[in-house]
Amino acid sequence: MKRICLFGGTFDPVHKGHIALAEAVCQAYNISRFIFIPARVAPHKEGSDSAAPWHRLEMLRLATKGKPLFEISDMELQREGISYTIDTITSFQKEYPASDIRWFYLIGSDNLLIFKSWRNWSELLKKLEFLVAPRKGFPIEEAESDILEKMIVLDTPYLDVSATKLRNHLALLKSQWLEPIVAEYILNQKLYR
Ligand code: ATP
Question: Strand pairing of 152-153 and 129-133?
Fold first, then answer.
């Protein structure tokens, strides 16, 4: 049985929290392919400030360089309009129809709490096994039980980092939460100024 884990987000920018979660999941769930999927326009972040797609893609490339388990898909960047996970997973499962694949999808608990606002959420729950990383300020207990019982809650530690905080406090660029090669890219490209 092959295990594929997808990880969607804006990655604006990708930080060590994302990478640490991805590594923890690969180990705990014996994942054979782990695929980062940067969103062109995230449904809940429409209109908010975002670095251009190619910058976000490049930062992901830099942050995952030399980690052979990690792949990046530009499927959502190539698709016009808002990036809905249901469209992405439908494409992936069409491309890889094998019945011996277990499909996982990693989210933080902020997304768990708004999961019913995701397009076709009940269909998503049938197509994917969701892995939820607890995030400070987004208590798992506040999730609706009909959703929670269909998801797997990870025992990963709280990682006190968010891309928004990093973007808003450029001083944090040198913080422990950014891969130095990504911080250098942000400075060179004058992003988030
Ligand atoms: P922002 O602060 O701008 O919302 P973000 O890092 O949460 O940034 P995304 O890049 O979209 O935004 O995150 C991708 C996925 O990673 C989401 O499912 C999000 O919940 C999860 N995630 C991000 N940071 C953490 C964290 N510190 N702990 C747990 N999950 C996280």
Answer: parallel
